[in-house]
């Protein structure tokens, strides 16, 4: 069987921590900031770790080499 390639889109959106957790950008900051509260905008800065069930899907299906 040929080697499996890592999905290029997933490489740009997710990365693994040293302990194997999946880190992703916070959701909800692309558009429509006027209707969001300032607290939500402030809390959505930076990155967050995905929950275990979502992280398992990302690692198994998209980050083949990780």
TrEMBL record:
GO molecular function: structural constituent of ribosome
UniProt keyword terms in alphabetical order: Ribonucleoprotein, Ribosomal protein
Organism per entry: Kiloniella litopenaei
Pfam families attached to this UniProt entry: Ribosomal_L35p
Family in the record: Belongs to the bacterial ribosomal protein bL35 family.
Record GO cellular component, one term: cytosolic large ribosomal subunit
One annotated GO biological process: translation
UniProt xrefs under InterPro entries: Ribosomal_bL35 (IPR001706), Ribosomal_bL35-like (IPR021137), Ribosomal_bL35_CS (IPR018265), Ribosomal_bL35_sf (IPR037229)
Name of protein: Large ribosomal subunit protein bL35
């Amino acid at each position: 069987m040929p080697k499996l390639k890592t999905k290029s889109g997933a490489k740009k959106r997710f990365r693994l921590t040293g302990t194997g957790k999946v880190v992703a950008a916070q959701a909800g900051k692309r558009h429509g900031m006027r209707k969001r509260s300032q607290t939500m905008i402030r809390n959505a800065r930076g990155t967050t770790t995905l929950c275990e069930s979502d992280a398992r899907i990302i690692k198994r299906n998209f980050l083949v080499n990780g």
